[in-house]
Write a structure and sequence with these properties.
By secondary structure, this protein is mainly alpha-helical. Helices cover 67% and strands 0% of the residues.
Length: 143
């Protein structure tokens, strides 16, 4: 779905299809939002790589939940990055289609998170209740 947002937003902007009037501040804000998503993505990936380097021996045998970096506040930063990317891309390319498709994308991610967290609750019975109460699923301090 996010690929469709990227393609349709860029195509619509180029052809002026389902795009709002030219507004440079909104475009710059979209670029800033997109870059914020990139920073969050790099931070989450670096945290994950550092965890794998430290716990190389036991990652496969006894997997552990991450409580460092962005994982301290958000349980699924990768999905949040995609939402932020799509929002920034839709704003930067002034796309109504991108903004509308962001709704089913977010709903799909929320459904996926519910399934993932059900599996995590079964796999991490000891630490999952603490993890659930100390961080949010997708949006810090909200959800």
């Amino acid at each position: 779905m996010y690929h469709f947002i990227f393609i349709l937003a860029a195509y619509g902007d180029r052809r002026n299809i389902l795009a709002w009037a030219e507004n440079p501040p909104v475009r710059w804000a979209g670029l800033g939002i997109y870059l914020a998503g990139a920073v969050l993505s790099v931070w989450a990936n670096l945290t994950w790589v550092n965890h794998l380097r430290k716990e190389t021996a036991r990652v496969q045998i006894d997997p552990a939940l991450l409580f460092d970096g962005p994982y301290k506040f958000i349980r699924h930063p990768g999905l949040l990055c995609l939402i932020i990317y799509c929002l920034g891309f839709a704003l930067a390319f002034r796309s109504w289609v991108g903004l509308v498709l962001l709704i089913p994308l977010t709903v799909g991610f929320i459904h996926r998170i519910k399934n993932m967290e059900r599996d995590f609750a079964e796999q991490y019975k000891q630490v999952w209740p603490l993890r659930r109460h100390t961080s949010k699923r997708l949006f810090p301090f909200l959800y």
